[in-house]
From TrEMBL, chain A:
Protein name per its UniProtKB record: CopY family transcriptional regulator
InterPro entries: BlaI_family, WH-like_DNA-bd_sf, WH_DNA-bd_sf
GO terms assigned for molecular function: DNA binding
Database matches in Gene3D superfamilies: 6.10.140.850, Winged helix-like DNA-binding domain superfamily/Winged helix DNA-binding domain
Organism, scientific name: Streptosporangium minutum
TrEMBL record, chain B:
GO molecular function: metal ion binding; metalloendopeptidase activity
Sequence intervals crossing the membrane: 36-58, 65-84, 90-114, 287-306
This protein's record includes keyword Transmembrane: yes
Cofactor(s) needed: Zn(2+)
UniProt GO BP: proteolysis
Organism: Streptosporangium canum
Cofactor comment text: Binds 1 zinc ion per subunit.
Keyword tags: Hydrolase, Membrane, Metal-binding, Metalloprotease, Protease, Transmembrane, Transmembrane helix, Zinc
The protein's name in its UniProt record: Zn-dependent protease with chaperone function
Location of the Peptidase M48 domain: 118-197
Coiled coil: none
Amino acid sequence: MKGLGELERSIMDIIWAQPSAVTAREVGRLIADRDLAPTTVMTVLDRLTRKGFLVRTRDGRAWRYEPAESRDSYIAELMLEALDLTGDRSAALTRFAQAVSGNEAEILRRALTELEDE
Amino acid sequence: MITAAALATLALVCAVGAWRFTRARWTYRAPHVAIVLWQALGVTWGLAGTGTLLAYALEPYGQGVLHGLAAFAASALGGGYGPAEPYDLPRIVALIAGLTALVVLVVVLLIAGAQTLRARRRHRTLLALIAREDPEVPGVRVVDYPGATAYCVPGLRSQVVVSAGTLKLLSPAELSAVLAHETAHVRERHDLVLLPFAALRRALPWSRLVANVQAEVSLLVEMAADDVARRYCSPRRLATALLRFGTAGAVPTPNGAMGAAGSCSAVMARVERLVTPGPVLSRGVRYSIVAFSVTLTASAPLLWLVPH
């Protein structure tokens, strides 16, 4: 039995891979872990919806789930913060280094060549 | 009046000291010590600046700043006694200004802390859904992004994150140097060092001095992490990793985002001291700076307590 976080992740991956909204039953069929109880799938889908990662719409007696945002837009959100491009100057992350602007990069490139030649 | 004058002097000394200190270069030879001094300057400046106004305003109580505030609060709420002599206009202005400044400083810090925690929680949640493990770098979260990033999400359960672009950009030796650097950030809780300075910068965005101070403290924090990392890896590989990061300018700047290009001189300063380390500050000098910082930090609270 996988942890809840791991399950959320696999279920998001499944839903991201689908071209359209899916029901809990379809998710259950697509998930690799066959022993998963349908209620567990429902619980995880519910959690993900509450967290805002999934949007659900009524379809007859079932819910259909689709991702609120694409995987790429979440990656973009993470990386904007990682590159300190959000403009809020927060101290939320500590970064290793940042890229410099065009002209200055040339100075660094030269220093790099020197260091590698030695 | 003496307390107010002493606090004013202290605040002025801190401000002038900070201004001079942003240009000091001995700090690169002992970044850890310099960070301690910066923290002392920051705390003392805040307490001395607000204390000056309050000491002057609350002088009629004759009880010093802290007890004067308590007496003022008691009389304001109707339960206590008023000052011996009535307030005059300058004291009222000073009281309002002092209380406002104090409240602003505290609130700005609290807001910054809360925002930081919220941003980190969101970041962690997203990482849990998106980042993967890579057998090449056990214990490190990898995000599939072509640009070069390496950072840590500090906290009780801190995480080190690198992008797929970083894995491609760096050699294994360079990568382990970068990871040693990030681990140093995590272990020494550098985020807590940076938080108040970042908060102050947001509170006073027009202040050149505050901006310089924040940049300087960030650089010193990086150097401190470099110093820890060099014990576990080749400093030269850390230097080449830094240069590679700096030149990996293939980062598209999204619309509306603030340009956050690092500064070339900051990168070069770090590279130089990694490749040709200068002599470390002598033990005596380092201890005296720490002792001075401790005295400085203690002085403002003591002046808040003295009765006149």
